[in-house]
Specification:
The structure is a homodimer of 339-residue chains. Chain A has 339 residues and is of the alpha/beta class. Chain A contains 13 helices and 16 strands. In chain A, the strands form 4 sheets. Chain A has a 7-stranded parallel beta sheet with strand order 1-16-15-14-2-5-6, with helices on both faces. A 5-stranded parallel beta sheet of chain A has the order 8-7-9-10-13, sandwiched between helices. Chain A has a two-stranded antiparallel ribbon with strand order 3-4. In chain A, strand 7, helix 5 and strand 8 form a beta-alpha-beta unit. In chain A, helix 4 packs parallel to helix 5 and helix 6 crosses helix 8. The first copy, chain A, is globular and about 65 Å long.
Chain lengths: 339, 339
């Protein structure tokens, strides 16, 4: 099978050949197994079928706002059976990085959720910042103060940026101030630039998403169409501090190494591993960076046109964002399972 | 005189030769004429001397938080005489850009101060967003709401990013959502990445700025050492929207063109113009982009070492950040004025 061929996985014989060639599935979640609150048709049958075939399955998600147990809970609520040992989120992997790969004896200043703080604590780390009520290390709120009077925690030795709806000027200033010390580590959970809001996928690229806003048709209220991602918040801190973050999430291969180091089932063989995801710039590039085969599912953010444009490009960076195969959704795997 | 020589302007004969060769001075303000609340010694005498010699003086500042009148007021309070026609701030020049260079009949969504909104209104523009009480176009506060429920103003046709201490997740999400429409203009007042807080200049580059935070000496409270600049906020919006901002302030030559277009004293002759500033990456690069001679004053952000490092570099981008001359402060000009 040629790499990066961007072929439809429609032929049953081609699909069964692929399934026989891999024993480990790495599955993205958002846009692959679910879309917001809704399960994607075929997801439960796919997981059941893979389990029946004895395939190993890991959930590899750039999401940093859920604990492992919450991911298992969300999967379960959608009828998808999984255990916490299968879940590799950027919350967990960031904790593994700060707690093990690069041991830290100081506190972590966290821009992110309770769940992210929880994963850090579970890895034996101490937290500064984080949401109110996040524990004895919680940040004293200093909203409304001029930044020149905002205090820094003298024990902080790392800044961790995640998805943080409480992000504001004071928190940005604190992160930048900590990072003026070159010994302070700088880690970002994931590089996701933005996330679509609302029903269905928002196709990336510039096009009028708020036609009523532009054409002056003010019937109905127009609301935000995107929410900024961790990559957006990280960019502000990078510019404001003159530093570059170590990015844990896809497309970095760090999460692949995390699975290898902790899964307890032995290292993955890239030649026998398959990554399934909905974003070319994270999931498919992650697969390329790990040397594994890739399937793009069109049930999320990226489009077939974008994949084909990448394939037509002569730029090596874009060539790495061409999947081996594509499917409309995970439902297309089902006919292949009854080999 | 060789360009970009980074020579000390200490010899009186060399200095008088330079003064005779130029008839227009472009002066940065922060770090050149004042340092926070404190006037820099020699500033008043320099302005008086230049006036006596019949030189034209313009204040070219990346600051977007003061109206022209407020800049004149600040200059006056420090004993520096100037008129509003001499003041070119990024607040004024952004208004000139949106109001004239690229006429806009829709509202501007503003991340920035009252002063910035005021300059826009003075140029006939309508404002959305901006601080509370900024007028009938003021943004309804939606703090605490999930971004999915935050409303967009259907009349907005441009996003203008300035220095905004009210910057937060909701405002970031709104800016990114407006910019998903490719017809929405995207302008940033200036690219300044960060500003030092507190007495004296903070030397850029990575070094322990909070030694007590690192060494565990917790005596005395450690406060923020930097405040994020407009460039930091702009970076978040650029990543979150997939767009690139048009940047008004230095080092772009747009402000030079603004002076040429509006000063009413005829276009500047680059060969007879001198830029004096304290930042290599904004002021000195601005001078290079405008083809004028440059003086770095060491009373602000950039250091002589950085200028010399740029001179030693073979990278063209860094070669453009080498001043023709440097002085310890504007005080060094005084012996040259009595020609």
């Amino acid at each position: 099978m040629a790499a990066g061929g961007c072929r439809r996985l429609s032929s049953v014989s081609r699909g069964r050949e692929l399934l026989a060639a891999v024993d480990t599935f790495l599955l993205d979640c958002d846009g692959v197994l679910w879309d917001g609150p809704r399960v994607i048709a075929g997801a439960a049958e796919l997981l059941g079928g893979l389990r029946a075939l004895g395939k190993r399955v890991y959930f590899v998600s750039n999401n940093c706002s859920r604990s492992r147990d919450a991911v298992v809970g969300k999967l379960g609520a959608l009828g998808l059976q999984a255990g916490p040992e299968q879940v590799y989120s950027t919350a967990r992997c960031s904790a593994l990085y700060l707690g093990g790969v690069a041991p830290l004896h100081r506190k972590v200043y966290v821009l992110g959720s309770q769940a992210l703080c929880g994963e850090l604590r579970a890895a034996g780390l101490r937290v500064s910042g984080g949401p109110p009520g996040s524990g004895e290390d919680g940040e004293e709120e200093e909203e409304g103060l001029p930044v020149s009077r905002c205090t820094l925690d003298p024990e902080v030795g790392a800044v961790l940026v995640g998805y943080d709806e409480r992000f504001n000027f004071v928190r940005l200033a604190k992160a930048c101030s900590y990072l003026r010390d070159s010994r302070c580590m700088f880690v970002a959970t994931n590089p996701d630039p933005w996330h679509p809001i609302g029903g269905g996928a928002v196709v990336p690229g510039l096009k009028p998403l708020t036609p009523s806003a532009v054409d002056g048709e003010t019937e109905g209220q127009v609301t935000c169409t995107v929410r900024p991602g961790t990559g957006s918040l990280t960019a502000a801190i990078e510019v404001g501090s003159g530093r570059k973050a170590v990015v844990i999430g896809k497309p970095s291969r760090f999460m692949f190494d995390c699975i290898n180091g902790t899964a307890g089932t032995g290292p993955l063989d890239p030649a026998r591993t398959l990554m399934v995801g909905d974003r070319l710039d994270t999931d498919i590039l992650f697969g390329a960076n790990c040397g594994v085969r890739t399937v793009l599912t069109l049930s999320g953010v990226s489009t077939l046109q974008e994949a084909q444009d990448n394939m037509a490009s002569t730029l090596p960076d874009r060539q790495k964002m061409v999947p081996d195969f594509y499917v409309d959704s995970v439902n297309d795997f089902l006919p292949l399972l009854n080999g």
